Each structure stands twice: as structure tokens, then as C-alpha cells.
Amino acid sequence: MDLIAPEIVAAAIIVPLALLFALRAPLILPFGIYVALIPYDNVLGNNGATLVRGLAIVSALALVFRIALVRRAVAPPKAWFFWLVLVGWMAMTALWTIDSALTTTTFGQIFQLFLLYSLLAIYPVSPSEFKRLTTVIVVSGVGSAAYGLYLYATGNRFEERLSITSSSGLTIDPNHYAAAMLLPLAIALSIALARGKVWGRLFALCAVLTMTGGLLLSGSRGAFVSLGVVLLYMAWRSRRSMQIIGFGLVALAISAAFPTVWQRFADPTQSMGAGRIFIWNVGFKALADHWTIGAGIGAFPTAYDRVFLSGYQAVFQGWSRPSHNVLIGTAVELGILGVVLVSYAWYSSWRDMRSVPATLDGMPVRAAIEAALVALFVASLFLDTLTFKYLWLALSMSALARNAAMPRLLTRARARTQMATARFIKAKAPPPRRAVEPAPALTSSGQT
Length: 448
Fold this sequence. Notes:
Elements: H1 6-24, H2 31-37, H3 51-70, H4 78-92, H5 100-121, H6 127-153, E1 157-158, E2 161-162, H7 174-179, H8 182-193, H9 198-218, H10 221-237, H11 241-255, H12 260-266, H13 271-274, H14 276-290, H15 300-307, H16 326-352, E3 359-360, E4 363-364, H17 366-379, H18 389-405, H19 411-428
Antiparallel strand pairs: 1-2, 3-4
């Protein structure tokens, strides 16, 4: 009799356990694996069929099953409605787009990210589960930074900048690699400054230093400025402002050992935003033709090409360039209304955090998520981020934090919960005491 292959035995044990865990804590498995792989999205597949996208689909299914299992969903935060309107306006621009292929591809990416964000926005997360997810985010950020430091030390560089390239030739843009660290870095910094266990704070401090090193090696000036925004914002919102300022000084000292960013600031060939200002000038010319209803979501490169020859570029930036600015790109693709919608939706995600306590289950997250949202907006002034998963992760963390702190159940679920609570209180209440009749009054003769 042939023995069963060990792989089959292992799968027979692991798969049921993984399914059980996914139904009980989908934010940790499989969504936690999805979070850990977000920085490597661009090198994990071709033609859009990435491993990260597959994990996103599995995570969405696990969230749906969990919501159905507990028969409870949370009303989404106010920001979700503005993102919904924005996505709806993006869909409408497909009716008059100047490049249907780019519009279909771009809208498909954003719509999938919005669907996962929507499921997270109604997921009834507990404070303890939210705390575990923040730990996963920090650990994934440390892992990404440590891997980047290892590659840089072994010679994987491009123009002295950290370069992560797959065997098939796919490369991670160092600017997006650094921007993806802003959320875990902000969370780790808030943990390091909070009151808590010494070992936890030491781990958080090491995490901050490791991610800062990875960010500096990326050579991304936009991410470097955004890191400064994180520090300034948290110094403003925290009682430990002097400690944060001290860490900022330490970070500046560390940057001397990683001079890539400073060399790019000083390099005259990297002036004019490394060519971004030339691209933005052409973008403003395209905006003159599309400021009302837009050229169509994702159609900025085509709008750019149509007016490219009408302007002058001191340094040729090539054809079909992305906008490198979420506001300019959105203005050309969605018109002025699109800029208003994306700005207010972003602001609403930040504002939703104002109703969250400073700590959730001992995890200081409010100031960290607020700082990350502000810093990502600053980074988006130099990048196109609406199709990137790390941005939607930060938006999702805002929604999850609000759900963990002050969940508002949807109508039917709320009614059932209130009825169950009333029955529980009634069952536990002590029986009512019988009223005691007052004794009859005595007359002076002793008779009633």
C-alpha cells in the first residue's frame, strides 16, 4: 500500500485550519497576507493577474462570509459616501472618454479597490482585531524595509537608489515603495512614543529606524518630505512633541549615512521636480480643454499627447506621461468636479478619525492614521496614487478605526441587537417587589 504524499497530508491539515481562521478573523488571514504583499504588488505578476489581486478577492470573500456568519454589519462612515460619489463620477466619464482602453483599465483597478474598501467599511471589527491588524501592518513595513536594505547592501541599485526587480524584469517604483511605508511608520512611531511595555516600545523604535532607512535609500524626495509631514503633524497632535522633534533630528543625522536623497536634492539634473514641472505645464494646457467634464478616468496620457507639441519642454519628458500629481491628473480626467470630490473625500476620511479615541485596546492609532492620511496626500502631489493599494489601505484603516471605536449597526441588525439586549436585561432583572399596604391608623381609643 502506497503512503499518502506528505504534501497532501499537510494540505489536508492546513487548509481546514486556514479556512476556520479566515472565518473567525479574516482581517488577519487572509487580509493580513494581502497587506504584507502590498509593497511588492508590481513585481508579483504580469498583465494584472497578480498574487496580491488574488489575495484581495479571497479577503473580500472571507469578509462577506464573516459578516453573513455573525449577521451583523456596520453603517459605513461618512467618507465612504463621498468616495462612492467619486467612483460613480469616474464611471460616468466612460461615456465621453477620449481613450476607452485606458479608462476601462484604470476604472477597473479603482473599482476593485473601492469594493474591498466598502466591505471593510461595513465590517464589524472589534478593538482587539483592529489592534492585531495594526501590528501586521507594522511588521509588513519592517519586512519590506529590511528586504530593501538587504538588496541595497548586495548591490541592487539604480542610480544609487534602491531597486527591487523581479526575475521577469518587473520593477517597483522607488517612490511608491517609500510612500507605502508612511502608514506603518506613523503607527510604529506612535507606539514608540506611547506609554506601554518597554519591549513593545523598543520593537516599535527599531521598526521606525528600519523603515526610515529603507525610505531614505529609495531616494524619494516626495516621501522624504512626507515623512517630515508625519513628524510635524504628530508633534502637533501629541503631548510628546519634544520627543518627536528629537526623533526628527535623529532622522536627519541618520540621513547623512544615506546621502541618496540629499544628492538628488543637490543634483542640478534633478531640478524642476525631476521633470515633473514640465509635465505639469503640459497638464495645465490639457486642462484648458477638459476642465468641465474631464477627458475620462485614466485618460491623462492621451490628453497629454494631444497638447504636447503646443508647449515647450527644456528637457524632453517623452510621450504618454502620467500626471505625477493627483490633483492635476484628476482635474484633467474628471474635470473640476472630480478635484472637488477627491479632495473632500480624502478630507472626510481624515475627519472621520476625529471621533475615534486616542487609543483602541491600548493601541495609539488616531494621530498615526491622521498623520498618514495627510502625508499620503502630500506624497500624492508628486505621484499618481489613486490606483495603488497602499492608499486604499490607509483609507480602510480610517473606516475600521471608526467601526472599532463607535460602531453604528445597520437598521435591521440594530433592531435585532436592541431586542436581544432588552430581553437579556429583562431576564436578568430581579422580580418586582410586592407593594406593602400601610398599616391602618389607630384611633385614640385604639380602634381602627
